[in-house]
Design goal:
The protein has 409 residues and is an alpha/beta fold. The chain has helices at residues 51-60, 77-84, 98-109, 129-140, 184-192, 203-209, 231-239, 283-295, 301-304, 318-330, 353-364, 382-385, and strands at residues 11-16, 45-46, 49-50, 65-72, 90-93, 116-121, 145-151, 156-158, 166-168, 174-176, 180-183, 214-218, 243-257, 261-264, 267-270, 274-275, 334-343, 371-376, 389-401. It is elongated.
Length: 409
């Protein structure tokens, strides 16, 4: 890694996710998709997670990025937050054009104070670490801006009416991809000079109009943009290795203690008692984290967050569950489905079930249809039947690469 990594806030990402994806919609689901064609393409499923999530994960894994700004339509903010899960993001409103959307994103990004600005299309989920390294290297070497590009190998012809008419020379032609990276001050100044109704091809075009020199770095076929319906299957095959299912189970129980509410799946449920525990005693998320750890063969929650460690006293259980989910991502896998059963005589779980599903799905970056929360009693039998506490059990189904080995902690 280069020496510029030592800067506390080296780079910020503007992730453009405000399009409607009209061309990518189709009437039947393909192998890698959820089949919900009413959603813009950046929110549709690819390889088990929303397309937007692929880019969010790629940027969040690189410590050189101090912040991610997602530009989206105001009505899609909640869906963007659900895609992000535990990944921290800032939000900016989409404009009428891509140029306006990026300008809005840059204004939000200015508050971060980063040295470099990276601008990326959410419809390009195949962002690799090598492309990011190439862009950083170009900027470190003094380039004002850099963009990944691929040489054109195919013959080029003009065919305005669907009939081949005139050949075009391809020497020196390249296909420019995203992310496109710039010295932050230069790209901000370039966008300030663009008229509100002016539409330019991409961020390189904006920078060039401002007199900025752009260096081309090696692009990647994995960075192809999803534009047409058939692109979903193609990108699924490129991005998703052979994944095999793994199933883990978890169980936990906490006794009642003094208090006026219990925390279950991150939701404070009013009750005559609280739950005793070293952390916030969220028995539901504790057993779910254990189920995920179990599917990874990674021990249990106590191994990663020892109850003897005072730093976890009173800690939010979202920390534990997010850690388990991030371990799946780091292993190259995805969470396919989680199933929770809360066992107690009281309080009543039903009125809070939908909020629990939503909170769990948001934290793990899942669709709500991938989360099940149920409740049952023991008909007055046992410690839960005697209202001495609450128990919970969970099952997590994850998909991991076929060559996945022992999880590293």
């Amino acid at each position: 890694m280069s020496s510029i990594q030592s800067s506390p806030i080296l780079a910020v990402t503007i992730l453009v996710a405000g399009g409607t994806g009209t061309r990518a919609k189709q009437t039947s689901p393909s192998a890698g998709r959820s089949g919900n064609d009413n959603l813009p393409k950046q929110f549709q499923s690819l390889g088990g997670k929303p397309i937007l999530r692929w880019s969010l994960e790629a940027f969040s894994r690189d410590p050189r990025f101090g912040s991610i700004v997602v530009v989206c339509a105001p009505e899609m903010r909640e869906r963007v937050l659900a895609c992000a899960g535990s990944i921290p993001i800032l939000l900016a409103d989409a404009g009428e054009t891509r140029t306006q959307s990026v300008a809005n994103g840059l204004r939000v990004a200015q508050s971060v104070g980063a040295l470099f600005s990276f601008i990326h299309d959410a419809a390009r989920p195949g962002l690799s670490q090598s492309v990011l390294d190439n862009l950083f290297a170009a900027l470190e070497d003094g380039a004002d801006g850099a963009a990944p590009g691929l040489a054109i190998a195919d013959a080029l012809w003009l065919a305005p009416n669907g009939q081949v008419e005139q050949a075009q020379a391809r020497d020196g032609l390249i296909r420019i991809q995203t992310p496109q990276a710039f010295k932050a001050s230069l790209i901000e100044a370039a966008y300030e000079t663009i008229a509100a109704d002016q539409m330019l091809l991409d961020d390189v075009a904006v920078a060039k109009a401002h007199g900025t020199t752009i260096q081309v770095v090696a692009g990647s076929p994995m960075l192809e943009k999803i534009t047409w319906p058939e692109d979903f299957d193609r990108m699924t095959r490129l991005l998703t290795p052979q994944l095999l299912p793994r199933i883990g189970t978890g169980f936990d129980a906490h006794r009642f203690a003094e208090g006026s509410f219990v925390t279950l799946c991150g939701i404070e449920v009013p009750h005559t008692h609280g739950l005793a525990g070293h952390s916030d005693a969220d028995v539901a998320w504790h057993c779910l984290a254990d189920a995920i750890y179990g599917a990874l063969s990674a021990g249990d929650i106590g191994k990663h967050f020892p109850p003897t460690d005072p730093q976890w006293r009173g800690a939010a259980s979202s920390i534990f569950l997010a850690h388990a989910g991030n371990m799946v991502t780091a292993a190259g896998g995805t969470i396919n489905h989680v199933d929770l059963t809360i066992i107690c005589e009281r309080p009543k779980i039903g009125p809070h079930r939908d909020a629990m599903v939503q909170k769990t799905a948001q934290l793990l970056g899942l669709r709500e249809s991938q989360v099940s929360v149920k409740a049952t009693t023991t008909e007055g039998m046992g410690f839960t039947g005697r209202a001495e506490g609450i128990a919970a059990q969970a099952t997590a189904t994850i998909l991991l690469p076929a060559d996945f080995g022992t999880a590293q902690t």
